Amino acid sequence: VITTQETPESKQEFLSEVTIMRRLRHPNIVLFMGVITTQDNLAIVTEFLPRGSLFKLLHRSGINLDLRRRLRMAEDVAKGMHYLHTCNPMIVHRDLKSPNLLVDRNWCVKVTDFGLSRMKSGTFLSTKSAQGTPEWMAPEVLRSEKANEKSDVYSFGVILFELVTGKIPWEGLNAMQVVGAVAFQDKRLEVPEGVNPQVAELMKQCWASAPGDRPSFEKILSVLRGVIRTVTQEQQKQLQQQKQQQQQQQKQPKE
């Protein structure tokens, strides 16, 4: 249940979110179940996802997830976003971040929180004010410039960074410092050595300064699926080698 105090602004945002959520049906979008309206509160009722937000799972839970699982989670997010971007009219999320991604008991990740989302009918969306969370926001949004669906792609790149590194984006900087670094100094998160080269390159493409240079979610899915296949094959090979070593040890005569 997502609740909000009823002010004119929050009521409009609530109605906007309901309008969007009620028409969405996808395995990687949180399922809208209904609304509750009382004199003092408005509430959106959705399915319950027991593992909570991806942010808390990655940074607060202490749970260790292997690379294949993390890449599958990135694929889940990309599938949900590809669905939104291929709706007619297209839906631009505008506040994509790990706290707005929920995880079910089977580790499936779903996109939620459509309070800032807009249905796109033209080329650009107005960004009169930079609402959202700076750590995940595209530079053009931080500068309150015209934005489009490629702003979501930038945000996805930050989520991918979280998934493969386990790091909190821009940790140690306050919101204004992040705005200055990303929007006006053209700085980006530093990808650690050891990250899969294809994934590292994909992140950097998502963070391109020019929105038009960022890949579509269709392209992102293609790259991720290729990497997942490679990682899966490597894991299977390692398991096979371990099994062979164990068998050889068992065959050795005991002294």
From TrEMBL:
The family database entries (SUPFAM superfamilies) matched by this protein are listed as: Protein kinase-like (PK-like)
The GO molecular function terms of this record are: ATP binding; protein serine/threonine kinase activity
Its annotated compartments are: Membrane
Q: Which residues form the Protein kinase domain?
A: 1-228
Query: SMART domains from the xrefs?
Result: S_TKc
The record's catalysed reaction(s) read:
L-seryl-[protein] + ATP = O-phospho-L-seryl-[protein] + ADP + H(+); L-threonyl-[protein] + ATP = O-phospho-L-threonyl-[protein] + ADP + H(+)
Q: Which residues form a coiled coil?
A: none
Question: What general EC class does the enzyme of this chain belong to?
Answer: transferase
Q: What is its main location?
A: membrane
Pfam assignment, any one? PK_Tyr_Ser-Thr
The EC code for this enzyme is 2.7.11.1
- Which keywords accompany this UniProt record? ATP-binding, Kinase, Membrane, Nucleotide-binding, Serine/threonine-protein kinase, Transferase
Give the UniProt entry's GO cellular component terms: membrane
Query: What PANTHER family does UniProt report for this protein, alphabetically?
Result: MIXED LINEAGE KINASE DOMAIN-LIKE PROTEIN, SERINE/THREONINE-PROTEIN KINASE TNNI3K-RELATED
Q: What is this protein called?
A: non-specific serine/threonine protein kinase
Q: From what organism does this protein derive?
A: Chloropicon laureae
